[in-house]
Backbone:
């Protein structure tokens, strides 16, 4: 082998950050070491991996993008191999890169990380949040080992462990006349101002709930932040639809109320997605076991709101 894992790690950092200086800071080494690693890999490949732009950093060439994807996958495999070797006595050891769909992170991660710490104290969890499509990309490039996300955007060929079904529900201002009802319908909501969570695939999903019934939602505001969304609803700028119902959503005097939706409705599965190569690794197996155990114990039940 004419290159080292360290050199590949330095090149990977440069590709991800688009900056030799940022890569050096991330890897805690000198900029000259990053530059030397890039020169060595470029000499080995016989092509340039970066366009050097004075005062503007570096930008990957087409060859750099292709090499970067392969390097990231190789490093992910090497890291998992290291973890498996360290875990050969049966106890999970090493680092786990855990991706999580951003709006669900505040509710899912505390439950899961607490169990990981209790059962596998030698496992270090590195967290990465993203939208649903982004998480699939992270899995494919090895940036995360497993991802907490919805099934609806993961490829059918990608292994997925469902944990619970998350029916959509309505977030309504306390001052709205609909707040007095125990259950609301899409027919009642459609003409009202709607605040839409604008992340990849969410717009199409929530819109389709209405169009499946011949309705059109009246979207007046969009936001990528679930916190901003809740604030706008509390200020009576409109209602919204979500799938995860957190503890604060059920509190009184929050400015809004949560109400289940009536009738049969498209309810996605939420669970753990991972790659075929990670299916049988010790550290991924440990995470799947923890999450399925929590689901079996009903730990996620409080995050679900459905019509009785």
Residues:
């Amino acid at each position: 082998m004419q290159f080292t894992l360290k050199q590949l790690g330095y090149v990977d950092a440069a590709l991800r950050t688009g900056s030799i200086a940022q890569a050096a800071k991330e890897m805690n080494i000198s900029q000259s070491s990053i530059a030397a690693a890039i020169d060595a890999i470029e000499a080995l490949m016989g092509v340039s991996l970066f366009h050097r732009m004075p005062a503007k950093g570096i930008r990957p060439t087409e060859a750099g993008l292709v090499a970067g994807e392969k390097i990231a996958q190789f490093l992910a495999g090497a890291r998992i191999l290291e973890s498996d070797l360290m875990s050969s006595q049966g106890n999970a050891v090493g680092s786990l890169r855990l991706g999580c769909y951003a709006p669900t992170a505040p509710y899912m991660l505390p439950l899961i990380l607490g169990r990981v710490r209790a059962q596998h104290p030698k496992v270090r969890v590195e967290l990465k949040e993203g939208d649903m499509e982004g998480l699939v990309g992270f899995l494919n490039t090895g940036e995360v080992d497993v991802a907490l996300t919805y099934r609806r955007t993961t490829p059918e060929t990608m292994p997925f462990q469902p944990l619970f079904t998350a029916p959509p529900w309505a977030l309504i201002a306390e001052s709205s006349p609909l707040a007095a009802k125990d259950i609301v319908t899409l027919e009642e909501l459609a003409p009202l101002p709607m605040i839409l969570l604008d992340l990849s695939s969410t717009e199409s999903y929530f819109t389709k709930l209405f169009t499946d019934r011949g309705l059109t939602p009246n979207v007046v505001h969009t936001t990528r932040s679930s916190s901003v969304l809740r604030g706008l609803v509390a200020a009576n700028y409109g209602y919204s639809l979500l799938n995860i119902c957190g503890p604060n959503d059920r509190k009184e005097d929050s400015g809004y109320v949560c109400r289940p939706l009536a009738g049969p409705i498209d309810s996605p599965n939420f669970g753990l997605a991972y790659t075929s190569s990670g299916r049988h690794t010790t550290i991924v197996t440990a995470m799947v076991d923890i999450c399925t155990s929590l689901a079996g114990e009903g730990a996620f039940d409080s995050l679900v709101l459905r019509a009785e």
Remarks:
- Residues 62-86 form the longest helix (25 residues).
- The radius of gyration is 23 Å.
